[in-house]
Amino acid sequence: MKPVLPLLVGLLCSLPVLAHEEVTPFPKVVQGGVPMAGLTTTDPHGLTVYRLVVPEGTTRLTVTTNGGTGNLQLFVRRAVHPGYNGAGAPYSSRFPGTRQRLVVEAPEPGIWYIGTQGANGGYNGVRILAALKQEKGAAPAVTMNPPPGIYTGSATFTLKAKGSTVRYTTDGSEPDATSPVVPASLTLTADTTVKARAFTSKGAVGPVTEGFYQVHPAGDVRDLDSLGTVHHLASAKGGRHIFRISVPANQKLVVVAEGGKGKSTVSVGHGTIPPVGKPAKGDTSFVRSNNRVVIPETTAGDYYIAVDAASIYSGRTVMAYVAGDGADLMPWGIVLQPYVSTETFDPVSCEVQEGMIDAGERRLLRYTTEIRNVGGQDMVMPDPEGNPFFEFQECHNHYHFKGFASSRLLDMEGNELRVGRKVSFCLLDTNRWDRGANVRKKFTCSSQGIQAGWGDVYDSGLPGQWIEIDTLPAGTYQLEVTVNPDHILPETNYDNNRVVIPVTIN
């Protein structure tokens, strides 16, 4: 069913810091005609969004990806982020491999978003290019090199537009003919929004190119939570980003720093910030690698993570997570991507027979649920036959575990307005989100469970993946999904079992 009412979802302050927010704090920037290499997903099925300015006078937009390894999907949408699996995107491409191409004829000028999403294991080392064909005589867009991102100490970059004079501002105003001409390079030492525009000798004026350069003090230590993710890291050669994560004893700590363009290394040490360079022979105080460090058994306390620039780099992502000696389930907020749909249900349909909906025309809030096992051990389910916690679903011809997940629609004060009826699920391996996890699926609906490093995904189009909202008026609400709400299944951590996102119904 296609959505009949648009719905805007903002993954903002209500989304816990544990959630994997691919486009926060701002989408990565793709500049017209400037290739971006080294695209890598830390989440094999994760959606990454890029921002592109399409100027006046553009007759064609062509977005291509190629190179590297793996599989990806490509989406393009104007003004609004494409959703998970391309929801809402009028342009989408999905072929095996990384070679994808989308063409938009006579694109409307303004902000466009490009989405790349991993498929069948994700992708690594991919190159993306957004080519803009312009009318003769049109002023080009300004390119920023290196692009906006999060820097330490200072950010030095250039602003260029072929055959044009570039003028810029740093006070939030739009550049005009009286704005200063950009120098050979700019250096910033504080958070700054830079706006630039090209002016040709024939009087043509280009679009405003805007970028936010975030600059942290050199040596600044930033705290990470388990499964916390920081995107858009950038640095000149020799620069260093430092993070800290508090870890209990006897856990597994995994740190990943990858993606983007350029080279960096990641070092992890307990108690103190790792020194620059390789550890000396016999020195076990810290571990260093190009992109992934695993501490198999932690000591209680703070671990420090240093990302060192072996060359100029940009677009890097850092993620760290702690896995206890057991299963740990959590809902993954970024995939919810809810939308409103009006549908008609037959009295003999499975959905009606199983009590998930009443017959007739119904107005639904549909959403995708992904439950990940972020622990160090598999979640292994018992034999369902004769077990009171399971029920046999005749329509599906297999058992469902009762009370596995619950969903509610709340007002902005947290008061319950609607409740989802689907609470029983079949647990199986769907999405291998951790590259270090077992590569083969183990669990199915016949032998249920979720491996460590895997997730179980229930797409929004499946039966029961909704909350009935009937005559609910337009407004802003909260969608809440909780896994294992009654703590029936043993986990090492129950604090991350709930996710809440704001939902605006137009």
What can you tell me about this protein's structure?
The structure is a single chain. The protein is mostly beta strands and 506 residues long. It has four domains: 105 residues, Jelly Rolls (Sandwich); 81 residues, Immunoglobulins (Immunoglobulin-like); 92 residues, Jelly Rolls (Sandwich); 177 residues, no CATH class. Helices cover 1% and strands 47% of the residues. It is built from one helix and 41 strands.
In short:
With 506 residues, this protein is mainly beta. Residues 1-26 have low confidence and may be disordered. InterPro entries: GH29D-like_dom, LOX-like_protein, Lysyl_oxidase, Peptidase_C_arc/bac.
Based on the model shown, name its key terms.
506 residues; mainly beta; Jelly Rolls; Immunoglobulin-like; 4 domains; 5-stranded antiparallel beta sheet; 5-stranded mixed beta sheet; 41 strands; 1% helix; signal; LOX-like_protein
Architecture blueprint of SSEs:
Blueprint: E1 7-9, E2 28-29, E3 36-39, E4 47-54, E5 58-66, E6 69-78, E7 91-93, E8 100-105, E9 110-124, E10 126-134, E11 143-145, E12 150-152, E13 155-160, E14 165-169, E15 186-188, E16 192-199, E17 209-216, E18 221-223, E19 228-235, E20 240-247, E21 252-258, E22 264-270, E23 286-289, E24 292-295, E25 301-309, E26 313-323, E27 329-331, E28 339-345, H1 350-353, E29 360-366, E30 369-373, E31 379-380, E32 390-393, E33 398-401, E34 405-410, E35 416-419, E36 431-432, E37 449-450, E38 454-458, E39 466-468, E40 475-483, E41 498-505
Parallel strand pairs: 2-4, 12-17, 18-20
Antiparallel strand pairs: 1-41, 3-10, 4-9, 5-8, 5-10, 6-7, 6-9, 11-13, 13-15, 14-16, 16-17, 19-26, 20-25, 21-24, 21-26, 22-23, 22-25, 27-30, 28-29, 29-39, 30-38, 31-37, 32-33, 34-35, 34-40, 36-38, 40-41
